[in-house]
Amino acid sequence: MKVLIITYYWPPAGGPGVQRWLKFCKYLPQNGIDPIVITVKENEATWPIRDSNLVDQISDQLEVHSTSTFEPFELYLKASGKKQVPYSGFANEEQKTSFFSKLAKFVRGNFFLPDARLGWNSFAYKKAVELIKSQDISVVISTGPPHSSHLIAKKLKKHFGIHWMADFRDPWTDIYYYKQMYPTLLSTYLDKRMERNVLQKADVVMGSSPYLTELLRKKIDGNRSKFRFMPNGYDEEDFPSPRPEIERFSIVYAGTIGKIYPCHSLVDALLSLNGNKEKWTLKLFGKADEEMHQLFGRLGNGFRAFGHIEHKLITTRMAEAELLLLVIPDQNPNQGIIPGKLFEYIGSGRPILGIGPVYCDAAKIISETQSGSFFDYNDVEGIRAYLQTFEHEKTSKSEQGGLNSIKYLRQNQAIELAEILKTL
């Protein structure tokens, strides 16, 4: 059974958004599904993160078609004075933005609906039509963000009557940084109308968290059984074997982090424990904005920033850490935010220190898998007490996964996804 996957993010793009369908494409063929991928040419794409080593994970048997695109990000970079495309949530933007930067966000939020990657659609659609006509493709899958990708699949369904699965890795009009692009009432109305239309027309709508899946389900009337929850996961083969020795009193954070990721309680707890010894060390593998660097700078030599590193290296850093830090952004709605790294944290076998709303989906997963503890943004004493428990324990090597973590293995998720696709 052949399925066509429309995804803007694909190796050598980096970051968690790439992992979801890269791994599905790795394991779906073992379950009777033959994926074909349409993506954007790497020399024309505007990816904020690149990881060329992920290309090695693409099977030689997988058919991948890359198309041209036309996007306005060059104009955005010139207007804002930036050298990089914005990360998710604008984590690489400075705390104080210029007038032109704000203007560029306004243009993105009101003149390029639903997003600034819309210029890829005509190229991807043309290639999709060619493939559907020449091959026995029965299902098309679109994954967003960018949510403009769903419009490609919607058009294919209308033209060919093909079955369609719309995969939502993040919310559309409910994404926590939506208002940072200054949408007008008209833009918001048009965006929400496009979103509802996608939800109504798709045969299956897949969400990456329980909260997100329910949020999407509530937006439309009619057949609600088509909404399915499919979390991200982890791949055992991404971790080193044998597992490395644990580096005592080390806390690792992987990914981007900005001012809306409150960590003041963690810093206060570490300062009270470290005293003048700087025993605990917080290591950041990713991108932090200026405000976060100032906050973590209070730790002195107890903070080290390494920037983004390759995925195959970050999983090793996870496996050798004493603790792994997970922070949920403090901006509503955030109940359904489940960072992709959470599942790799679980797969590493190292305990997780979570900070955020204690009722969120991420906290529930940590509790379910017994893979760590979760604390409110302001719970300095709780975090301090949790850290103290590690000072009197001896750790040797990390272990694969945690309790009830087997369902988050990528190969097991591929089995479930294959069954959904076959019902179409």
Description:
Helix 1 packs across helix 14, helix 4 packs parallel to helix 5 (148-160) and helix 8 packs across helix 13. The protein is an alpha/beta fold and 424 residues long. Strand 5 (163-168), helix 6 (185-201) and strand 6 (204-207) form a beta-alpha-beta unit. The strands form two sheets. The protein has a seven-stranded parallel β-sheet. A six-stranded parallel β-sheet has the order 10-9-8-11-12-13, with helices on both faces. The protein has helices at residues 16-27, 73-80, 99-111, 121-134, 148-160, 185-201, 210-217, 264-274, 290-297, 311-319, 341-348, 361-369, 380-391, 410-423; strands at residues 2-6, 34-40, 63-67, 137-144, 163-168, 204-207, 227-229, 247-254, 281-285, 303-305, 321-327, 352-355, 372-375. It contains 14 helices and 13 strands. The chain folds into two domains: 2-233 and 410-423, Rossmann fold; 236-391, Glycogen Phosphorylase B (Rossmann fold, 3-Layer(aba) Sandwich).
Describe the structure concisely.
The protein is α/β, with parallel strands linked by helices. It has helices at 16-27, 73-80, 99-111, 121-134, 148-160, 185-201, 210-217, 264-274, 290-297, 311-319, 341-348, 361-369, 380-391, 410-423, and strands at 2-6, 34-40, 63-67, 137-144, 163-168, 204-207, 227-229, 247-254, 281-285, 303-305, 321-327, 352-355, 372-375.
Main β-sheet description: 7 strands, parallel
Distance between the termini: 11 Å
| CATH class identity of the largest domain | Alpha Beta
Number of helices: 14
Low-confidence segments, given as residue ranges, are: none
In the sheet with the most strands, the strands line up as 3-2-1-4-5-6-7
Query: What percent of the residues sit in helical stretches (DSSP H or I)?
Result: 25-40%
